[in-house]
């Protein structure tokens, strides 16, 4: 399970919890403007927008999980098991593979409205990256400071939804997740009046009673409701540190602790391996890992973006504790 969210203060923030039971040795990968993207079916692209993101530890190609480009456009791929369908090559369409989708979108487009238009002509083709890394069933949230969309590959092509709640988890498909939010329309960040009955008193014995009924389990539909509520009611000042801190708290509301989600394999549990937070206006990637609660930052604009070589930074995974005495 994974969760993605955006958050807007003075800048636009976007990121995700990467929840899984195994790691692909992910690292921060920067793709400078002149790294040559070789595509399986469309023409290679020699020069494009620069990209920063978290990618699998595979040399020679940026297999991004989530990323943002120098124009402020951001995207994350989340599991969409049992629903994602990739198709055969289609004439007249821009045929890219699912693993090329993030590089293609972020390399070519600068905002969500351009992407929406381009998606009308994109076909996601079922071609594996390699035999060892077959295709994953994914859907994507794409976000910038004007809004967000969700892209789902279905059997009759790509379905694109506007995303007014600014979050995405896994199953079921996005339209069903959105509909389910109707069930929670009475929830509030304020304590409710007693509308249960006029005939007897009910005590307001605690703060936080306005959100009684908000799910707290780790299923993807429960995380959708929980994180949508948390994001919608989020309050912080608009400074960089406060915004970043608040963003980590939004995704912290649906963090998966190791041990709570058993995978059908001895000793394997799904947990939040890392949380990313992009300030997309400044192209800075902040992240935390499960074993290191300190926030680490990598700035796209500090690199030589006219180079042609990928730049990688390993994730800082050692806990960093500030001992006071
Ligand atoms: C599993 C990851 C999504 C995390 C997630 O949604 N977890 C929830 C699982 S579940 O619903 O609860 O089952 C996805 C996100 C990005 C994916 C990776 C990226 O797409 C990049 C390559 C693509 C290759 O085709 C496969 C390996 C891979 C390296 C992918 C492995 C895996 O499928 C990743 C890491």
UniProtKB/TrEMBL annotation:
Gene3D superfamilies: Penicillin V Acylase, Chain A. It catalyses: cholate + taurine = taurocholate + H2O; taurodeoxycholate + H2O = deoxycholate + taurine. Keywords: Hydrolase, Lipid metabolism. GO terms for biological process: lipid metabolic process. One of its GO terms (molecular function) is choloylglycine hydrolase activity. Its EC number is 3.5.1.24. The keyword Hydrolase applies. Residues 9-313 form the Choloylglycine hydrolase/NAAA C-terminal domain. Transmembrane segments: none annotated. Belongs to the peptidase C59 family. This is choloylglycine hydrolase. It comes from Methanobrevibacter millerae.
């Amino acid at each position: 399970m994974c969760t993605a969210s955006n958050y807007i203060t003075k800048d636009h923030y976007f990121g995700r919890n990467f929840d899984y039971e195994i790691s692909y040795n992910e690292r921060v990968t920067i793709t400078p403007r002149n790294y040559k993207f070789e595509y399986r079916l469309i023409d290679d692209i020699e020069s494009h927008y620069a990209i920063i993101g978290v990618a699998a530890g595979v040399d020679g190609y940026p297999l991004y999980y989530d990323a943002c480009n120098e124009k402020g456009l951001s995207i994350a791929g989340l599991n969409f098991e049992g629903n994602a369908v990739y198709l055969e090559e289609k004439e007249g369409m821009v045929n890219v593979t699912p693993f090329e989708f993030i590089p293609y979108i972020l390399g070519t487009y600068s905002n969500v409205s351009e992407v929406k238009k381009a998606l009308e002509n994109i076909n996601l083709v079922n071609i594996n990256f390699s035999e060892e890394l077959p295709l994953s069933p994914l859907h994507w949230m794409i976000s910038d400071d004007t809004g967000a969309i969700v892209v789902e590959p279905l059997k009759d092509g790509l379905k694109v939804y506007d995303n007014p709640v600014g979050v995405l988890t896994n199953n079921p498909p996005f339209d069903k997740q959105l509909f389910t939010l109707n069930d929670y329309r009475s929830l509030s960040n304020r304590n409710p009046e007693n509308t249960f009955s006029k005939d007897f008193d009910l005590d307001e014995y605690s703060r936080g009673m306005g959100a009684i009924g908000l799910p707290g389990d780790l299923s993807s539909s429960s995380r959708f409701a929980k994180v949508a509520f948390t994001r919608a009611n989020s309050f912080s000042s608009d400074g960089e540190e406060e915004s970043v801190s608040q963003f980590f708290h939004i995704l912290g509301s649906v963090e998966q602790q190791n041990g709570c989600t058993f995978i059908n394999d001895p000793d394997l549990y799904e947990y939040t391996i890392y949380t990313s937070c992009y300030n997309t206006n400044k192209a800075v990637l902040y992240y935390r890992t499960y074993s290191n609660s300190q926030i680490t930052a990598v700035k796209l604009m500090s690199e030589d973006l006219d180079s042609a070589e990928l730049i990688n930074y390993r994730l800082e995974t050692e806990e960093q504790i500030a001992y006071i005495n």
